[in-house]
Amino acid sequence: MTPLVEINHLVKTYPGFQLKNVGFSIPGGSIVGFIGENGSGKTTTIKLMLNLIHREQGDIHILGQDIDDAEVGIKEEIGVVLDDSFFYEGLTPQQIGRVLGKVYKNWDDALFASYLTKFQLPEKKSVKEYSKGMRMKLAIAAAMAHHPKLLILDEPTSGLDPVVRNEILDLFLDFIQDEEHAILISTHITSDLERIADYIVFIHHGKILLNQSKDELLEYYGMLRCGLQDVDKIDQEDIAGVRKSGFGYELLVKEKSRMIKKYPQFVIDKVDLEEIMVFLLKGEK
Amino acid sequence: MAGLLLKDIYNLRKYGKSIIFVLFCYSFLGFTMDSTFIVGLIGFFFAILILSTFSYDDTSKWDRYAAAMPVYRKQIVLAKYLLAFLLAVIGIGVGFVFSYVINFIQHVPFDSTILVVGYTVFLVILFYMSILFPLVYRFGVEKSRMLLMVIFLIPFLAIMGLSSMSTDLPAVSEVAIKTALYVAPLLIFVLYVISYFISCRIFQKKDL
User: Fold this and answer.
1) Predicted-complex ipTM score
2) How far is A227 from chain B, CA to nearest CA, in Å?
3) B10 and A84: CB-CB below 8 Å?
4) Are the beta carbons of B14 and A51 separated by less than 8 Å?
5) Which of B60, B86, B73 is nearest to B204 (CA)?
6) Residue B73 backbone phi and psi in degrees, to 5
7) Which uninterrupted H or E stretch holds A204?
8) CB contacts < 8 Å between A and B, how many?
């Protein structure tokens, strides 16, 4: 089966920043988590995918079509949540629904209304009076009410409390039960991705550092803890990242199962995405 | 397309009360001066509202969101040109109604020059919009607002310059004025369309 999204060799240059050869794919029925520090190129990549900014190189295929050939048709099938870009805050959800109803062919008023009820968003109150979390929920409702096949979400869970975040993550998991659906989600909240993502794409300084299934990734890396004097016993080539504390070292090691056999005298723990991210970037320095 | 227009109408409707308040103030002016004046005043007032819609779009980064929707960029631009046209029509229309009511109250008989005034104001508005829009798409609304002030000044300065050079303005024959009134709409329409294509070009190339 061809992936829902396939992007290759994307290049975009800004003064002081370049997106270099970015490429990845999103298989149907999956959630791809897009991680990286601020300014690493996540939003730039998302903007390129939507043709909001012009790329210097590369190609973008979404739902089997080249974005340059069928941009508007493709966008009928995409729902987006963009970082702080939405309707003017003077409008009400009801008005927003009416506008979007005229924009999207498949807009579903009833579905939109059901999301508003589910998220407890008053229909006739202007967005100005909404909290940050409510605005985010509204943006998500607006992105999903035209039965899209692909969701492109730039930090959709930031500003939400854990309860609501979980509710929304469940909604996303529900969404990808359909094999023709997929989600690209960029976020700093890596624990969200641990819950829902199938693949992780890690971008750093405009380059893809990791592009792997989440389970493999969490299985591949391990955290080895040792005392200050023991660190010399570990081969340099096994170490992907280091953190030194007063009591000893924490070492991010590759190929966890092999390491457990190789260094039976040390404790090697599981790692989470955040640790992988932080240690890999530290190890680089 | 319809959705894009509707969005701006909702944005402006939010300020309905302020708009009515301003109209109310203007109508007082209408009583104290020539009631043809109010047609131009209200006409321009409505036309300038288009700038507010650009400002709202700016603050909410609307263009980026709109471009992510299934619409062509040229439709986003076209919606603005249509809205500006509509606002000018509405403005002149409301201006006519106000001046009619004021005249009625003051028992002033209907004077057909008001139609010529409305017509001229309408064309002047479209002329200004033709120049303004590409500037807005190129430089953003805030800078363009300043540029617009400068553009507004040019004809005034030109007329003042002319009148200071000679005590009389150069005499213009009635035929010339009539011809100008007939030809002007065609020219302005062509200018408006050219302006639209220029704005489209600028907006297509823009990184949003």
Assistant:
1) 0.89
2) 51
3) no
4) no
5) B73
6) -60, -35
7) strand A199-204
8) 84
Q: Do A53 and B207 touch (CB under 8 A)?
A: yes
Report the C-alpha gap between B195 and B133 in whole angstroms: 7
Question: Helices (DSSP H) in chain B: which residue ranges?
Answer: 2-13, 16-32, 35-59, 62-67, 73-105, 113-139, 141-165, 174-205
For residue B25, the enclosing domain spans: 2-205
Q: What are B89-143's pLDDT values in tens digits?
A: 999 999 888 888 888 888 888 778 888 888 888 999 999 899 999 999 999 888 8
**Chain B residue closest in CA terms to A12:** B207
Query: How far is residue A254 CA from its own chain's centroid?
Result: 24
> How far out from the chain centre does Cα B117 lie?
14
Quote the CA–CA distance of A183 and A107 in Å, as a whole number: 19
- The answer to whether B61 contacts A51, with C-beta atoms less than 8 Å apart, is no
Find chain A residues with C-beta within 8 A of B59's C-beta: 88-89
Q: Mean pLDDT per 10-residue run, chain A (285 residues)?
A: 89 92 94 92 94 93 92 94 87 94 95 94 92 90 95 89 89 93 93 93 93 92 87 85 85 87 88 90 62
Distance CA A76, CA A74 (A): 5
- Show residues of chain B in contact with A84, CB under 8 Å: 61
Tokens of A34: 């897009």
Which amino acid is present at B57? D
A99 exposed, middle or buried (CB, 10 Å; 0-12, 13-18, 19+)?
A: buried
Residues of B in contact with A87 (CB under 8 A): 7, 60, 62, 65
What residues pair up with A5 in beta bridges, in sequence order?
Answer: A26, A62
8 A C-beta contact, residue B42 and residue B23: yes
The count of domains in chain B is 1
Cβ pair B11:A88 closer than 8 A: yes
